[in-house]
Amino acid sequence: MKFSTAAVAALTTAVASVSANFTIYEPWGETTWTAGETGVVTWSASADLFQSRCEIHLLTGNATDATFVTNFTANGNLVPCNYTKANLHPLPDYASGQYFIRIGPNGAVTDQYAYSGLFNFVGNGTVLPDGETPASASTAAAAPTVNDAATAQSA
């Protein structure tokens, strides 16, 4: 799923991402996550969110054309917004590249989310982003062809 939002413009800054409700401290540019290991997200939230539950998403792309990769907090794994740290483990084996995190109250509009800076992810790409399916390759054998006129006549 692709989206474009002005809120993601914070990705281009060199300081912690700040929304009206959150400040993300980690991951950031010098951070590297590796598939199979633990990814750490640290943040602070405003007092008005202390009773809320938060989502943590992984995205890739750039500020104007980001692609949703996964919701780390899906299936009832929401975290209290007043927590200051989440350890995500084991990290799925997504393709190597530049990724970023967004965090916000469950069900909120993305304008209420905070975004981390881009950071490196090292993986082999054996796990596809949520909603993507493998490209299907044809497994049928090609029909034999006859290129020789003499062979064609004797067949």
TrEMBL record:
Keyword Magnesium on entry: no
Q: Where is the composition biased (Low complexity)?
A: 133-155
- Signal sequence region: 1-20
Domain Yeast cell wall synthesis Kre9/Knh1-like N-terminal: start-end pairs: 27-120
**What protein does this entry describe?**
Yeast cell wall synthesis Kre9/Knh1-like N-terminal domain-containing protein
Q: Which InterPro entries match?
A: Kre9/Knh1-like_N
A Pfam family that this protein carries is Kre9_KNH
Alphabetical UniProt keywords:
Signal
User: Region annotation Disordered: residue ranges?
Assistant: 132-155
Q: Which organism is it from?
A: Mucor ambiguus
